[in-house]
Amino acid sequence: MPHIDQNAELQTVITTFEMTPGTCQDLLEALQDAYDNFISKQPGFIAAGLHVNDAQTRIANYSQWRRREDFQAMLRSDEMRERNRKINLLCRSFEPVMYDVVQAYG
């Protein structure tokens, strides 16, 4: 489970996927399979969460990695490149963005 802490030394990645309600479940299943069978087993992976909006037109993915390079290595692997080609067919767009936690509340 992700833990948000501005003092943690890790890389946060937030990816948003835009799709139609008709492809939401297929995309969610593809992402779950990617995490279950590949992403969560990669060096440097810490935690992730998948969130779906109520209209089923967006999925937000929050993931944490030990280092930026760990995330980049996973993304550039042959398996993830193939998975991303299939994921791309299920959505209008997706964009992973690396962030630094500035402040956490709660």
From TrEMBL:
It comes from Shimia thalassica. This is Antibiotic biosynthesis monooxygenase. It holds the Pfam family ABM. Keywords: Monooxygenase, Oxidoreductase. Gene3D superfamilies: 3.30.70.100. It comes from the Bacteria. InterPro entries: ABM_dom (IPR007138), Dimeric_a/b-barrel (IPR011008). GO terms for molecular function: monooxygenase activity. Residues 11-102 form the ABM domain.
